[in-house]
Design brief:
Layout lengths: L1 H13 L3 H45 L8 H16 L5 H13 L12 H8 L4 H13 L4 H9 L2 H6 L4 H10 L14 E2 L13 H10 L1 H8 L3 E12 L2 E11 L4 E8 L5 H18 L8 E6 L4 H7 L7 E7 L5 H18 L1
Parallel strand pairs: 1-6, 4-5, 5-6
Antiparallel strand pairs: 2-3, 3-4
């Protein structure tokens, strides 16, 4: 019995050794990586298959085998027959998107395998090529889930970022996505907090708004954009025994700097701008470590007096910004008309 007991003890000890733990970790990691690669492979083949199905449908229609007015009937018949042959996946709406997939992504602009078919269904709902190109590039760069892609479309992110840019800037935004290279690249005009579900015209207090944003931090980070990491709320700084508190502090991994945010529900006053400049000076001298760049300050406000801001920031830190926010989705049609006007006016000048 003693021998068996010792043998059991030795066997039990084996499971506690670093060698066994390394083996367990090695197998687990390999399995997880294999699952990921298998999923990627399936997604790649699915994207290619749906693109090719779209190609067959378009070429059949263009080959003169069917008149345009029978297009709906063609897809309805294909849906019925393919469903009988292969089961789910061939609804008429899915076939519509497959055909559109091929039409909007010709061979020279083949779709990325980094996005799922569900992503592309959302992208194909956009008629504007510039918008579609932007959201595709941004979804890949920021690893957006399908719900995140839907939210950014609904909040008109492309149109907000395009506002104020010239035609070349808009085309670059569409072809490359939002590149973060300088402080102004992280700004939104305006920021949209519709995810807080605060009905208009109700306006929360600054403390309540701050609490809601922290309670919805994931959505807030999505609105802020790529590179933001949360540092703290009501971040206390002390200067000559006087305490001050910054509403929200983030660190931007790409720009390598602190981003300080103050929330205002009323018009920004000149002393609000001076206070933010104070915070930025403190962080630059007391919080920055080797390799950090100068901090960015953003005052988010419901209303903005452009002239007051211009005078109050005269010869002041160029990385201090006053940006508007709103609690509801923007008027997409107005933003789109503005975009079209910019492109038409500059196009006419060429």
């Amino acid at each position: 019995m003693a021998i068996k007991s010792n043998g059991l003890k030795i066997a039990t000890d084996i499971w506690k050794t670093s060698e066994y733990k390394n083996l367990l970790s090695q197998i687990s990691d390999t399995y997880s990586q294999g699952q990921f690669r298998a999923h990627q492979a399936v997604n790649t083949h699915l994207i290619e298959t749906y693109w090719q199905i779209g190609q067959y449908i378009v070429e059949f229609e263009q080959g003169g085998n069917i008149k345009a007015e029978y297009g709906k009937a063609l897809l309805a018949n294909l849906s019925k027959d393919l469903t009988l042959l292969h089961g789910k996946g061939f609804s008429r709406s899915n076939l519509v998107y497959m055909r559109l997939f091929y039409q909007r992504y010709p061979k020279s602009q083949k779709p990325s395998h980094q996005l799922s078919w569900s992503h592309y269904v959302e992208l194909l709902k956009l008629d504007n090529d510039l918008e579609r190109g932007f959201y595709e590039k941004q979804a890949i760069a920021e690893h957006w889930s399908v719900p995140e892609l839907k939210r950014q479309k609904a909040s008109a992110l492309f149109l907000r970022l395009a506002a104020g840019k010239n035609k070349d800037g808009i085309l670059k935004l569409s072809s490359q996505g939002q590149l973060v290279e300088k402080p102004t690249d992280i700004l939104r005009d305006p920021y949209v907090f519709e995810f807080l579900k605060i009905p208009e015209p109700h306006l929360p207090s600054e403390t309540h708004l701050e609490t809601l944003l922290c309670n919805h931090l994931q959505q807030f980070l999505l609105e802020l954009g790529k590179g933001f990491t949360f540092v703290g709320r009501q971040y206390r700084i002390t200067i000559n025994n006087t305490h001050y508190r910054v509403d929200l502090v983030f660190y931007h991994r790409i720009l390598r700097c602190f981003v300080l945010i103050d929330l205002k529900i009323n018009d920004v006053q000149h002393h609000d701008i001076g206070q933010m400049n104070l915070y930025m000076g403190y962080f630059a001298n007391e919080e920055n470590t080797e390799g950090d760049n100068p901090p960015i300050g953003i005052i988010m406000t419901k209303n903005k007096d452009e002239l007051l801001v211009e005078y109050a920031t005269y010869q002041m830190n160029s990385q201090l910004f006053v940006q508007k926010y709103q609690l509801y989705l923007p008027n997409e049609e107005e933003l789109r008309r503005e975009l079209e006007m910019i492109c038409q006016v500059e196009g006419g000048d060429e």
